């Protein structure tokens, strides 16, 4: 197939510079290394690229052998959304747990330690934190990724997270602008819409982003959402009014604007990735995230050629593409200098398993006064909803692994559907049941399963690892405010009385 660019001219280099592509495997493919030589300045990592810290360090070293100032980005929120520990579950609780504790110094310390571990492995840009205010309890994609439903709480913890992460030499990318919290649709699948007046947006959605900007967030990620009050025609990622007039103009932000993954259906199904990419850069975006789903050289070539072609046709001003590429290079320079200058400001705070400390503090326990800790191995029933794409289904969650460590012989299985309650009772036999749920309030079958279990076995322990909107019930109810491995660890300690 013919291409529009040679790979050596300034226009082509700028087009490659604004891309943040992904790739398969745990070593860099030849095509990616070649593109780095041609001008590609950023690479995005996902769980599929990471097997261990040592392997990740080797991979980032391989990338830097081709381009020493490459931005290596990752979607590492901690909590439910982890790439660094996708196979085991995160050592850090996510935003909702940190918001439940509401100790901004703890949030800063957790973010710093997470950033330190990323920096040790050669990662210097994190697509985090989520600054979304989870004002809609039915939100299927944000949930525990948000610090909470109170805009002021979200704002202060977003600022603390940005400060902590960047103090470790890793650039923060605050997301999803102008705020994805008040949605009932997952933008991975379709285009969400937020019908809120400007006054509401100012007091709710925009407050955390103002705090992130004041804290010096080096990047901001746009959301694939339609907010008619701001722009009735274009989703935020493609909106000049949202990215340039609002974020740049009214909020005064001058750092890097990154799009959410351009292949998500909210953009791809309506505009296509090439057209969507051109419109996004023209609207004010500086970098295009791609590669969660489309992770190959053909995708890079398609987007490069779309941008080059749009400049040559006059649809995309060449100076806008050049400005975007320059912002990418500026962030790369900051990241390179930050990695040499950072030091650990509080080793006594951050190195003492800060993630588990935070997870323990985040627990909300109901019924503890009448509860006798378990001494015999229970039967753990994991009520498993369909995982959203941001979280993925490869990361283990629950309390069974930690209970097995404390109470050897613990058994577990996953369940879903309307008949789950009766199936669990039969499988458990005489053993004590520990029912683990995730967002009970969003899943009628899950609530009905608990009804069945508690009617037959009122001594059932319930662990809620999502947003605790449903009333607490069970002989013991533990809200962990997230499903990270450390959240399960902390809950298991309570159940076993450790």
How would you classify the helix and strand content by structural class? alpha/beta
Largest sheet: 6 strands, parallel
Uncertain stretches of 5 or more adjacent residues: 1-7, 345-350
Number of strands: 14
Mean of residue pLDDT values: 93
Spatial ordering of strands, largest sheet: 2-3-4-5-6-7
Helical content band: 40-55%
Task: Tell the overall outline.
Answer: globular
Helix run count: 19
Strand content: 5-15%
The first-to-last residue Cα distance is 64 Å
Radius of gyration from CA coordinates: 23 Å
Give an account of the 3D structure:
- The protein is of the alpha/beta class and 498 residues long.
- The chain has helices at 10-17, 30-38, 53-66, 95-101, 104-120, 151-167, 198-203, 206-214, 240-250, 265-268, 273-283, 297-313, 318-341, 347-350, 354-362, 400-406, 420-428, 444-456, 485-496; strands at 19-20, 42-45, 71-74, 125-126, 171-177, 219-222, 256-259, 288-289, 364-366, 379-383, 411-415, 433-437, 461-464, 476-479.
- The protein has a six-stranded parallel β-sheet with strand order 2-3-4-5-6-7. Strands 9-14-13-12-10-11 form a six-stranded mixed β-sheet, covered by helices on one side. A two-stranded parallel ribbon has the order 1-8.
- It is globular and about 70 Å long.
